[in-house]
Design brief:
6 strands, about 700 residues, two-stranded antiparallel ribbon, disordered C terminus, mainly alpha, about 60% helix, 2 domains
Length: about 700
């Protein structure tokens, strides 16, 4: 092993040892158990089987007229909202008819009179609180369900299902047409119909990127990008598994509140940095592809910019709109459960109100904190930064002599903006990863809403990726071999330990003796993302330039090619099975390692199964249709295309040679990657349209 590798490992061990010395409070489990349980759920099925069954999900604000040791314990423990739940607010799913002895005759009256329902709940819940804890409570009703309450499909649902049926019919027609053409040996097939063929799209999805080792495209092959994309997606899925299980009702709340004393857990708490990998890859590929394109096709019209943006929107939106439509319509009617409305229904309500912000890719700025498909803030931010990145590249290629100066200016702005916003508004330097933040999905976090999900919070990494793509292009052009540069190889080997150490620095803000300082918070907010972006792009360059065969082999496995092409669909749908599973729970979820592992593996399996269907039936057909509609009828002999065509694909990841036709793989960090930009679907020969 290279000596620098040992040095990196030693640095991590020293770092861990030092921070383990900084322990915080130890929670006494016996004292903890004296507090009322935060989350409880009565038997849902049994309640709704009873005549007049009424089941309500409520929040209870604790209070007391006679302060006690228990009350002081609850208040003191709840003050540390960074690491603890607010134990003075209880969350219960209650069978009102059983717990409050409501008769079958009175149940309909309570359903129709919210004030009377609240009065009944206050009375019976306070009896229990007084007997067990000598406390009182004020009840807020979230929602109730009763026997016979079933949500029926409405016109919007049937319209959505009709669209799904139409898509399947289109795919079926295209597939039958394609098969008949192949059986007849006819090669001049309709591009429009074959673009819908399930068989054709399946072959594209399963194809390997085979590159002629003597071709010029081999030089520009970015093998490994699919592996990085897939592994990053797996990390995202894991982080959202942890988020969704703590968003629901948790049985062992102490398990969620104690890991802050374990340094290794901060790899997850501060692991939100991993999303910067997507921004770095996207901008790297966009810049690299742009420079390749303008070699032969200089951009002379400003109009090209708007065409690029429109084509990107047209490519991303069909499958995105279909997923949003699912959330707005039939999703919440698939099942029921005590937390179904809380986990599924509330998100559906947000989507019905704010769907248009998603399709315009402005949902990270508009929506009053009620995000439809919360994770898609990334798509909005990435699209906005893509618009920025194209402008940067157009300027750089127009004025190459000031490229270094201009990049320096952009880096300065990218560093200053989050720092200034953090200092001016007293934001936390990172998104606080506390139990209450999980429970509310960060709705009360100004750092999340105003920094993390916006352009200002991600422009640094995106700019670093642009610069790295620019450097990679000129390194290749000048035949520079980074693998032979000693200092770069050493830096490459230090990327992992430095990256882990950077994530660990977030533990400083979870120490009990931490005192907020606007200046230090601003400095940290300015530097930690750009530092991570530099490490990510260094790793990318090291892999592309073959600095280490073992590491390169880990990210260049052929199996990643298929998984990488599913990343866009996987990103869109991965929270759907997660929410579905948690929404079906009939008891509070115990956050245990084995339970989380099962949830994680289930989430991966379901996510990629759904993604494969979406990719073959929706994403690839609509992408092919776009190529058919926007592709010129008479293609140039060198198989190039119009100015905007290559660039809007956001850079090639791997260029293939197949029958002499260049294929490009899309560089969007969360999209189908095996998209041929200017490939004719079939060779011209006989006419098959008569079939």
């Amino acid at each position: 092993m290279h000596p620098s590798k040992y040095k990196g490992i030693r640095s991590i061990l020293v770092f861990i040892a030092l921070f383990h010395m900084c322990s915080s409070e130890i929670i006494d489990e016996l004292e903890y158990s004296k507090m009322p349980k935060m989350f409880t759920m009565d038997d849902y099925a049994d309640c709704l089987l009873r005549p007049g069954g009424l089941y309500c999900v409520v929040d209870i604000q604790l209070m007391t007229s006679k302060p006690s040791d228990l009350w002081y314990q609850i208040k003191n423990f709840s003050e540390n909202t960074l690491k603890h739940y607010k134990h003075d607010i209880l969350h219960k799913a209650i069978c009102v008819t059983r717990k409050c002895n409501v008769s079958e005759e009175h149940s309909p009256m309570l359903r129709d009179d919210e004030n009377k329902l609240k009065s009944v709940l206050n009375e019976c819940i306070n009896v229990e609180l007084q007997e067990l804890y000598e406390l009182e409570g004020d009840v807020s009703v979230r929602y109730c369900e009763h026997k016979g309450h079933i949500k029926m499909l409405d016109n919007y649902d049937w319209s959505y299902l009709a669209i799904i049926l139409a898509i399947f019919i289109m795919n079926g027609v295209g597939t039958v047409y394609h098969i008949r053409c192949m059986k007849s040996g006819i090669k001049n097939q309709s591009k429009l119909l074959v673009s819908l063929s399930i068989l054709s799209n399946w072959k594209k999805l399963m194809s390997r990127n085979v590159i002629d080792p003597n071709s010029i495209e081999k030089k520009r092959s970015l093998n490994g990008i699919q592996g990085m994309r897939f592994l990053t997606m797996i990390a995202v899925i894991f982080s959202h598994v942890l988020l969704i299980v703590t968003y629901g009702y948790v049985g062992n709340t102490i398990r969620v509140e104690t890991p802050y004393d374990d340094l290794m857990m901060h790899l997850m708490y501060n692991g939100s940095l991993v999303v910067q990998t997507f921004f770095c890859m996207a901008s790297f590929l966009m810049a690299y592809n742009f420079l390749i394109h303008v070699e032969k096709h200089p951009i002379t019209s400003v109009w090209t910019y708007f065409v690029i943006i429109f084509q990107r929107w047209a490519r991303l939106t069909p499958v995105y709109a279909l997923v949003i439509g699912f959330l707005c319509t039939v999703y919440e009617k698939l099942s029921t459960g005590p937390l179904w409305q809380y986990i599924i229904g509330d998100d559906a309500d947000s989507c019905r109100r704010w769907w248009w912000t998603n399709l315009l890719y402005i949902n990270n700025y508009v929506g009053e904190g009620q995000l439809c498909m919360g994770v898609t803030w990334y798509l909005a931010a990435d699209t906005q930064l893509f618009c920025y990145g194209i402008l940067v590249m157009m300027f750089i290629t127009k004025f190459p002599s000031i490229a270094r100066l201009f990049f320096g200016f952009l880096i300065a702005i990218a560093v200053l903006v989050p720092g200034v916003l953090t200092y001016k508004n007293s934001y936390y330097p990172t998104v606080p990863q506390g139990p209450e933040a999980f429970r509310t999905l960060y709705q009360d976090s100004p750092t999340f809403k105003n920094i993390y999900t916006t352009i200002s919070g991600n422009i640094a990494s995106y700019t670093v990726g642009i610069i790295c793509g620019y450097l990679h292009y000129y390194i290749e052009k000048n035949d520079i071999n980074l693998a032979k540069i000693k200092w770069f190889r050493m830096l490459f080997y230090l990327v992992f330990p430095l990256g882990v150490s950077l994530i660990f620095t977030g533990v400083l803000f979870y120490r009990d003796d931490y005192v907020y300082n606007p200046l230090t918070a601003a400095i940290y907010a300015s530097l930690y993302k750009i530092a991570f972006g530099i490490l990510v792009t260094t790793f990318m360059l090291g892999v592309f330039h073959k600095c280490d065969d073992i590491i390169r082999g880990m990210v260049e496995w052929d199996g990643y090619q298929i998984a990488g092409r599913l990343t866009y669909c996987a990103y869109l749908v991965h929270t759907i099975p997660q929410r579905y599973i948690v929404g079906l729970l009939k008891q509070p979820y115990d956050v245990l390692d084995f339970n989380v592992l099962c949830m994680f593996l289930s989430s991966i399996t379901l996510t990629y199964a759904i993604s494969m269907i979406l990719c073959i039936f929706v994403e690839m057909p609509f992408t092919n249709l776009q190529k058919v509609l926007f592709q010129p009828n008479n293609k140039p002999k060198d198989n190039t295309i119009q100015e905007s065509k290559k660039i809007e694909q956001n850079a090639p990841v791997v260029a293939e040679e197949s029958n002499g036709i260049s294929k490009e793989i899309n560089g969007e960090p969360a999209r189908n990657e095996n998209i041929e930009i200017d490939v004719e679907i079939n060779n011209k020969s006989d006419d098959c349209s008569k079939l």
